[in-house]
Amino acid sequence: MLKRMHDRPLVPVGITIDGRPFEAKAGDSVAAALLASAIGATRASPVAGSPRAPYCLMGVCFECLVTIDGVANRQACMIPVAEGMRIDRQPGLREIGP
Amino acid sequence: MTTITSLAADWDVLVVGAGPAGMAAATVASRAGLSTLLVDEGPSPGGQIWRAVTTTPVMRRPVLGDDYWCGADAVRAFERSGTVYLPATTVWSLDGQGRAGLSHGGGARIVTASRVIVATGALERPFPVPGWTLPGVMTVGGAQGLLKASGLYPGGRLVIAGTGPLIWLYAAQLLRAGGRIEAILDTTDRRARYAAAARLPSFLASSYLGKGLALMAEVRRRVRVVGKVTSLVIEGDQKVDGVRYACARRQEARLPANTVLLHQGVVPQTSLAMAAGVRHRWDDDQLCFVPEINADGATSHERIAIAGDSAGIAGWEAAVTRGHLAGIAAVRALGGTGDGLPDAAACRRRLAALEGPRGFLDRLYRPARSFRIPTGDTIVCRCEEVRAGEIERAVDLGCLGPAQLKSFTRAGMGPCQGRLCGLTVTEMIASRRGVPQAEVGTARPRPPVKPITVAELASLPAGEQDLAAVIGRRR
Amino acid sequence: MTAGTARDYEVAIIGGGLVGAAVGWGLARLGHRVAVLDEGDDVRRASRGNFALVWVQSKGLGMAEYAGWTVRSSNAWAGLADELRRETGVDVHFERPGGFHLALSDEELETRAQTLRRLHNQPHMVGYETNMLGAAEIRRMLPAVGPEVVGGSYCPLDGHVNSQGLLKALHTGLARHGARYQPGQRVNGIKHKDGAFRLSTAKGEVVAGKVVIAAGNATADLAPMVGLQVPMLPERGQIIVTERVAPFLRHPIVNVRQTDEGTVMIGDSREEVQDPSGIRIGINTLMAKRAMRYFPALAQLNVIRTWSAIRVMTKDGFPIYDQSRTMPGAFVVTCHSGVTLAANHALAIAPMIARGALDPELDVFSARRLDAQAHA
What we know:
The structure holds three protein chains of three kinds. Chain A is mainly beta. Helices cover 7% and strands 34% of the residues of chain A.
């Protein structure tokens, strides 16, 4: 549960999270958008399935790994949202694609 | 906008990091006529302390404060300097010959520079307490970044726990932004006050004191602060729902919480420099590894210099000064234009004046042992879910140091390559063996220090010697 | 792990890696009083840098006995894994689904076939199955394989294991049997006096009835102290490690395997270089390229680290098992395949050392063969 304050208008950016539409703002990282969506755990760790979510928000902890536009294990805190972006949470190990 | 494929292969100077130090170094080098490339992971310049200074929606100056807005001037100077700037780019390898592996937009390149200035800044010290891996637990620095970049801050019940100046700064910024804090659980070690007292005089003479006291007063007026906290247990099932804590003279208590922000200082981000083989040493004041450098940031490798917090935690002003010194040294070494350079002697004096008072802060905010050395089920290596008890058992089996420990427990083998567990591992081994941290050392990170795909790796050039090593095998 | 003063052990083993720990555990489980002396944390350790294969196919070209020795260890490996798990609780994830060499051209395939023919045509060669398979057959067994793979060789006796887990299991086993593991205690001298071996270290002397030198490449420096010559030719190899991924490759390929954790390891390379800290990116590039040709889906995986390690390599690549004639009770056990041969080291060689002499079948592994070659 995050609140937002801003001193200028924010440009909305439409994305989907696990298939559901969500309105992020221009300048948000994917991690920020996920946190703003109050989704809780953003992945289950591949080692023991523990619930994890963004921690450091600066690219060093690798907790914020999500699938973005079909590409798995991307660091959400390092990637800005873009219109139409598809974000999917990862339950455990990534699957190797075709 | 430069893309990774159009990038030139050779540079006079490569700067890694667009924070205060990196921008300062690049600005000096570029203005002196050296071909300068600055590479940074983030989408816009500023590093962490000046994160999103060109794009932040939090534009009312008093919310983030003057130190933040100084960054705007630094960015302007940097943007006008002639430096080639490549954002959203990681540097995943570096060697003593100045060869750096870059990755941008899914494409990798190797570039070479006569001088590489590593300005990778700092990261938060690990804070291994029970429950620290739960969703809803983040670092204070991370939350501060969210505020700066997006104007976002925790709603619901927020508890901040730890020690260090950043807690007071963020709390003040949060309150000014309209946020609310349930409590600050201050884990500052009361014994540290006595040790800090010896360093008080130089601190009193500095500007840190005024700033610090004002921030603390601002926050304490509006937020409940629990001092002398000696233990923390974060609770929750799928996400945080509360924090149990104990403090000096009182019984254990519990606070419900939706968000817990942790902070017990920052430490240099050494991954790239260590992977390059730059010599580091254990610093007992800052309780972390720092590179062996001189005032100009020169390291054990002639081509590599380090500036800013990754040289040792000293704040943004010292970072800028170190950046200037590293830039000047590069200009001198490579024969750039000497006119218009900042005065190196003045920079060194300024650096000494800025670093002197840090000893007090280091001592005062030195994290207590119990928060550096976890036990039992507390997770130490988040990536591989290795718990403290497992590490203790491995030390008892004969692991003398982090390399063997890595092998026995997998601690440090995940994608973060020890950024979040390395210091804890060093401290735990040192403590259990009864030897100094300096003797235990730390495991060396290996390239790529930030991930690249197999395809990216496969796209790089290879030569005859490489071919002979791979194809010309006996088997 | 306190500093050692004079102690009496039945056997002192120099080297706490996969070979030393396997021999030590093998002796300790027979009830012997064992000390294992090891160097510090920062020393080069092949036990930490290997491909973790339990490999049979193509071993022994040039020494048929080595093939037989390898098959024996492969067949005993499951028993070793079981015993270690029961005794220590550590599951080393030994799997023997059979392994492959893959070919990306007809030429490669034919070269492989010829090598295997030469291997199996050697006199005294042990018989076991290795099949040359065509593209269709390979595709059936390895669905993830790419279109450039034209075929390969498959041997049902090939497998792999978690080699870090193996080292940990052996050390846990050593501790359980009361063996004394002394790390950070480099041996710098060995004397033979009054029927006992006196090993000098910076932390004091260790006294033992027998000594086994299993110190990897450092065996070359230690062996002369017991009157043996052990010529070693260390070489460097590099490995790529990816992030964890859901299981897709059950069978190990000689240079690509998926670990039990789910990471994918990609090898392999060979340089006559002894600096373990250097990494040539170009080598990694070529290995990555080749791995993608074997398994195109690897392309998108993130590489999370690469490393280089120094292989323990005798001069001709075959193990050196030796016993001193001038100092009876001193043994040398060193080889490249510390993982594959762990079962033999623990369950065959350790009992021989307990009995006081290596069996005559191991004479072929004596370093004297290298003297003979040198003089030939």
